[in-house]
Write a structure and sequence with these properties.
The complex is a heterodimer of chains A (124) and B (222).
Chain A: E1 5-9, H1 13-24, E2 29-33, H2 36-43, E3 50-54, H3 62-72, E4 80-85, H4 89-99, E5 103-106, H5 110-123
Parallel strand pairs in A: 1-2, 1-3, 3-4, 4-5
Helix pairs in contact in A: 2-3
Chain B: H1 6-17, E1 21-25, E2 31-34, H2 36-42, H3 46-49, H4 66-76, E3 78-86, E4 92-103, E5 109-117, H5 119-164, H6 170-204, H7 214-217
Antiparallel strand pairs in B: 1-2, 1-5, 3-4, 4-5
Helix pairs in contact in B: 5-6
The chains are: A alpha/beta (124), B alpha+beta (222).
Chain lengths: 124, 222
């Protein structure tokens, strides 16, 4: 595989830009999307080695994105990592258990985020 | 015991066997008869109550209202509402009553009292209210945690990024470390709060009072 390409999906601008900046310290190609719908647009154009997505987002949340990726790009499903605050996880408990997607809790450290993306590479 | 007509006997049995709480008192509030259900609910035998004032069975906190009740039933002929009674064992029970004044042919006026014990329903309502209040507080706590986590992520990761890039001058390094430590404290506090809130909310959820559960509330009650 060529250079890894990472997709960050997050509706909070500050968090999205920071996640992208941290990942750009390690990898050259990092794209950003503001929600699941925006992410699908980018997924149609690129193949990603890791997709780091928030769970609770307007328009299409992480759950919706997971199901669309499952349907349209099944090979990319194992490259998903969810980033979420512990607080809203309850709403997604059942989904997270069933999907088996790794979850990174906010607030995370740089090492946590980089480590989660590296694990997504190895699972892919 | 005086001989009673068969129809009167049936009425007496009806009253005695009724699960409703029934009594007859005179206009001064002195009990003339009490059915078995009412006496048992109060922890007495029926004949122990005959001759006593109904007012004596009221909880001390509401006993001063008894003369007002007697005044109303004399004037209006009917009265209904809630009464707080106290059992022989000292438990306070809430009864809803609907009383009617009557008169024996050629005799004195009397009051026929009919009541139901609604203590359990009232307490279930109170518990449901408490559970609802707890749910609201829990949801507020979780929403607050969510709102804190995003900016806290930015604060913590930005500081770490500055350190990792060597952008923090030596003179400011201790301050930045202190800020990171403090942010970590907030993170731990929010996580603990969310964990406890979620635990408490899930602990409360299965304890909804039976009265809210239609399958249970329609079943016969013991």
């Amino acid at each position: 595989m060529s250079e890894p390409r990472i997709l960050v999906v997050e509706d909070e601008t500050n968090v999205r830009e920071l996640e992208a900046e941290i990942l750009r310290e390690e990898w050259e190609h990092v794209d950003t999307a503001v929600d699941g719908t925006d992410a699908l647009r980018l997924l149609a154009e690129n193949v990603y080695s890791a997709i780091v997505s928030d769970l609770a987002m307007p328009k299409m949340d992480g759950r919706g994105l997971f199901h669309e990726v499952e349907r349209r790009y099944p090979a990319s499903q194992s490259r998903l990592v969810f980033v979420t605050g512990y607080a809203e996880a309850e709403e997604y408990d059942e989904f997270l258990r069933q999907s088996g997607v790794p979850v990174l809790a906010k607030p995370f450290t740089i090492a946590d985020l980089v480590g989660a993306v590296q694990r997504a590479f190895s699972l892919a | 015991m005086p001989r009673v007509e068969p129809s009167a006997q049936r009425y007496r049995e009806l009253v005695e066997q009724s699960r409703g709480l029934i009594c007859i008192h005179d206009l001064a509030g002195v009990l003339l008869s009490v059915n078995r259900a009412a006496a048992e609910r109060l922890g007495y035998a029926a004949d122990e109550l005959v001759g006593r004032s109904l007012g004596d069975l009221l909880a001390p906190t509401v006993r001063h209202l008894f003369p007002e009740y007697l005044g109303r039933i004399q004037q209006e002929a009917t009265d209904e509402g809630l009464m707080l009674v106290v059992t022989r064992g000292g438990d306070e029970r809430i009864w809803t009553y609907s009383n009617v004044r009557g008169r024996e042919p050629g005799g004195a006026d009397y009051v026929l009292g009919h009541a139901h014990d609604i203590t359990d329903i009232k307490r279930s309502d109170a518990r449901a209210g408490e559970a609802e209040a707890l749910r609201s507080v829990g949801q507020l706590a979780l929403a607050t945690a969510h709102e804190i986590n995003n900016p806290l992520t930015v604060i913590m990761a930005s500081l770490q990024l500055m350190v990792a890039r060597g952008q923090v001058p030596e003179s400011a390094a201790a301050y930045v470390q202190r800020a990171i430590k403090s942010a970590e404290q907030i993170r731990d506090t929010v996580r603990n709060m969310s964990r406890i809130t979620r635990l408490e909310m899930s602990r409360q959820a299965p304890q909804l009072p039976a009265v809210l559960d239609l399958t249970k509330s329609s079943a016969p009650r013991d």
